[in-house]
Amino acid sequence: MVGITCKNILIVVSLVLSYGNAANILVMIPLPYISHTMNFLPIFKELAIRGHNVTVVSPFPQKTPVPNLTDIVVPNILNDLLDSSSTKELIGKDGLITQMITLWIFGLESMQIVLQFEQVQKLIKDTDSKFDLVVAESWFIQEPFVAFGHKFNAPVIGIMPAFFFPMPAHLSGNHLPIASTPLNKLGFSGHMTFFERVLNFFVYYWDIVVGDLYYLNKQDAIMRDYFKYPGSENLPPIQDLLRDTSLTLLDHSMAIGYPVPLHKNVVPFGGINVRGSDKLPADLQKIMDNAKDGVIYLSFGSFFSVSFLEQFMQDAILSAVGKLKLKVLMKLEDPSLLQNYSSKNIEVRRWFPQPSILAHPNCKLFIK
Questions:
Q1: Which residue, among 114, 110, 147, has the nearest Cα to 237 in the 3D structure?
Q2: Who contacts 294 (Cβ-Cβ below 8 Å, separation ≥6)?
Q3: Which of 39, 227, 265, 305 could tie 147 with a disulfide, CB 3.0–4.6 Å?
Q4: Is 255 strand, coil or helix?
Q5: Beta bridge mates, 25
Q6: Range list of β-strands (E), 238-361
Q7: DSSP string covering 205-230, please?
């Protein structure tokens, strides 16, 4: 199934490119979300293997060189974002609207930092290079990168690291049937009550309207501040550039979601990075084999940290999992957070081999 998905994506991408020729492809994924990058890389590696010249702008270079794939390494700005006073005040707070605004603030602050990088400015001012295709995570708080399509007169493929949020769905022309499709952020089932449908409707159009009037206008201003090249004075509004996106790739699998109609310019590719699991380290293998009641794997991902949560929320989580009979493997950046808990059922590490843990038969639950 994964192979078929990859093949289909490559066929669609090849239709965007010129027939029969190796293309120069620019990939913009400079934000410090390693889980996003690892999920996207199989596509770019395969394009390089098939003879295309792929240039990837990212803080995560290839450990093993890939022929035809060039890394432009930019600084990892994770700590800069986490130290931001505005995000510190909002992250981990309750409230759907607050969470949405937090994501927008992350996007605005990220772009103001990344677009100043020497490597990125060099690309913007480059008058010699030619790219036939631009691929960017422009549907996820990195909208200004669509301007590279205008600069290089190239089609743009937008990547979304999850299922559609309302604004990308709207701008891509793939409006969601909100009477039957619950938004990810709300956690409703496919059988919504009348009240849930009303709330679904409100949040959907709030994101579109406020996102357009507030967030995208600010991203448009940032784009015009940093994209200075011959012809940049004719840059269309960022909303129009996003609407002109030729293809959208969704890191989503219909096997684990509700059925949603998608246009032909939208291709889901969830699971394309799954390549089987490696053998567990000996100590973890022993822990999981000896867990008679099973194992819970608890991870907040590569970006979010438990320390972002208010103290009472940290206490509630750690107290709850500490009382379980099951063994709990917890990915925790700061093990000192557990110093007040003496439970022997919690194994804390900064990193776990996630695919191998999930593949073990004793893994009963994954909390993410």
A1: 147
A2: 326, 327, 362, 363, 364, 365
A3: 227
A4: helix
A5: 54, 133
A6: 247-250, 266-268, 295-298, 327-331, 346-349
A7: HHHHHHIIIIIIHHHHHHHHHH--ST
The predicted model scores a pTM of 0.83
Please give the distance of CA 122 from its chain centroid, rounded to a whole number: 25
Inter-CA distances, 245 with 6, 138, 148, 221, 266, Å: 20, 9, 12, 20, 10
Please give the C-alpha separations between residue 236 and each of 134, 171, 253, in angstroms, as whole numbers.
17, 15, 33
Contact present, 361 and 292 (Cβ < 8 Å): no
Contact 60, 87 (CB under 8 A): no
If DSSP codes are grouped into helix, strand and coil, which group holds residue 251?
coil
DSSP notation for 172-215: TT----TTT---TTTT--SS--HHHHHHHHHHHHHHHHHIIIII
- Protein fold of 282-366: Rossmann fold (3.40.50)
Q: Domain 20-269, what architecture?
A: 3-Layer(aba) Sandwich (3.40)
314 close to 306: Cβ distance less than 8 angstroms: yes
Q: What is the pLDDT of residue 239?
A: 97
Asked whether 184 and 162 are in contact (CB, 8 A), the reply is yes
Report the residue count for the chain: 368
Per-residue pLDDT tens for 254-293?
787 788 889 999 999 887 777 766 788 999 999 999 998 9
Residue 366 CA to residue 357 CA, distance in Å, equals 10
Rounded to whole angstroms, the Cα distance separating 267 from 6 reads 11
* Rounded CA separation 173/8 (Å): 21
CA dihedral 248, 252, 258, 264 (to 10 degrees): 30
Instruction: Give the pLDDT score at 77.
Output: 85
pLDDT tens for each residue of 38-94: 889 999 999 999 999 999 999 999 989 999 999 999 999 877 776 665 555 555 566
